[in-house]
Amino acid sequence: MASYFPNKTILSISSGFEAAKVASAITNANPGVASSAAHGYANGDLLLAGSGWTELNDRPIRAANIATGAFDLEGFDTTNTTRFPAGGGVGSTFRKATSFVPFSQVTDVQTSGGEQQYFQWVYLEDGLQRQKPTFKNARSMTVLLDYDNALAWYNTLLGHDLSGDTQILRAALPNGKLFYWSVVVGFDGEPNFNINTNMQVTAQLALVNPRSTKY
Question: If both were cysteines, with which of 99, 120, 141, 182 could 16 make a disulfide (CB 3.0 to 4.6 Å apart)?
């Protein structure tokens, strides 16, 4: 049993990636093992995956158990061949995150989305409403920061907004646990002008893959 407060969590956004490496295969195993010649990765390298397996696509993953021409997808179970059809990992790509810029002066973080949606219907003969789950709403995070355009995160977020490229958001909890999400950044850099309050800017982070990766 455990409980956690997010207090003193450090949020950081990726600011650089190496060129993508291609996997010739990924095993159905726990964890999945990717085959990739001359990948050059080391244990603990953080990778952004691109894959025909939708649950792996746009998912941050750490490399582990490094071998010549192969590496484990740390903590990622691909044994279920319904969710991960055999051969579906062929051609998957991995980009190593090379640098991160930490956020500072964060005053609030809000999450939204993920609500389960349903299809509902009624049969004429009994008048009882029935329902089946369909999809979950897309997820996003909103980060509120005190304005300072001299801080590194400010220009990094502006650049990400202009590029529209998928980035990795990292949350480092004070107990050592790590959360990673793939996100697209929305940030115009314009602060509010509410009287008698700190000037603030808002970063809107749309989750590309709604699942976080936790270590």
Answer: 99
pLDDT band of 5, cuts 50, 70, 90: confident
Structural domains for the chain: 16-98 (2.40.30.180), 102-214 (2.40.30)
In this prediction, residue 4 carries a pLDDT of 82
Pick from 151, 150, 160: which is nearest to 187 by CA? Answer: 160
Instruction: Judge contact between 35 and 26, C-beta under 8 A.
Output: yes
Q: How far is CA 58 from CA 50, 137, 180, in A?
A: 5, 17, 11
pLDDT tens for 141-188 read: 999 999 999 999 999 999 999 999 999 999 999 999 999 999 999 999
CA atoms within 13 A on the CB side of 209: 23
pTM exceeds 0.85, yes or no: yes
Give the torsion sign (CA, 60, 62, 67, 72). negative
Q: What is the mean pLDDT of residues 72-83?
A: 96
Paired with 169 in beta bridges are 13, 181
